[in-house]
Design goal:
The complex is a heterodimer of chains A (115) and B (115). Chain A has 115 residues and is mainly beta. Chain A has no helices and eleven strands. The radius of gyration of chain A is 13 Å and the shape is globular. Chain B has 115 residues and is mainly β. Classes of the chains: A mainly beta (115), B mainly beta (115).
């Protein structure tokens, strides 16, 4: 079956611009996560959704970052006034149900480069 | 606070030899533990997880991991390494009964299997 998909795969933008990154989770998965992975580091949590609502957004670095999941499926991560330090790979993951034993299924990521 | 330590940035092993990638964790209570693998330009792929029961967990591609509660470790192992196992490996943790909270990842260990 189809896995988690993310678009675009690569995004190059200029400092100060606005970007949107899209995540399409596995059908039926209620939980959706955004992580950011910098070079040489493990994924760092940004925000996660249970259904349509953001259950925990404590990982968002500042108010330039925002994410939505209006229909409980596709999610969009939005970054305003991008900075060079935002350059990273943004990973999306989804998982079924409520059990904390469930593994997460990751998409291929969006590589964001801010010039 | 939860944390995961992967003490080795890089592990080199000859093809056919056994391999070990180390992971220790710090979490309140008993954890769920996960291993993921990341190939170049690909998302993270789930390898295996420890939930309960037998401390030796078997996963994909011949990998296994041993949960050691007293040493708070969850080392990844494989009896005979393949060149195709060369990749980046991440250990992750989540407390039990925490619902769908995000995973906390280690920094990753790059495994290089030499023919």
């Amino acid at each position: 079956g189809a896995g988690v998909s993310q678009t675009p795969s690569n995004k190059v933008t200029e400092k100060g611009k606005y970007v949107e990154l899209r995540c399409d989770p596995i059908s039926g998965h209620t939980a959706l996560y955004w992580y950011r992975q910098s070079l040489g580091q493990g994924p760092e949590f940004l925000i996660y959704f249970q259904g349509t609502g953001a259950a925990d957004d404590s990982g968002l670095p500042n108010d330039r970052f925002f994410a939505v999941r209006p229909e409980g499926s596709v999610s969009t991560l939005k970054i305003q006034r991008t900075e060079r330090g935002d350059s990273a790979v943004y990973l999306c993951a989804s998982s079924p149900g409520q059990g904390s034993y469930n593994e997460q299924f990751f998409g291929p990521g969006t590589r964001l480069t801010v010039l | 606070a939860q944390s995961v330590a992967q003490p080795e940035d890089q592990v080199n092993v000859a093809e056919g030899n056994p391999l070990t990638v180390k992971c220790t964790y710090s979490v309140s209570g008993n954890p769920y533990l996960f291993w993921y693998v990341q190939y170049p330009n690909r998302g993270l792929q789930f390898l295996l997880k420890y939930i309960t029961g037998d401390n030796l967990v078997k996963g994909s591609y011949g990998f296994e991991a041993e949960f050691n509660k007293s040493q708070t470790s969850f080392h990844l192992k494989k009896p005979s390494a393949l060149v195709s196992d060369s990749a980046l490996y991440f250990c992750a943790v989540r407390p039990r009964n925490s619902g769908n909270t995000p995973l906390v990842f280690g920094k990753g260990t790059r495994l290089s299997v030499i023919a």
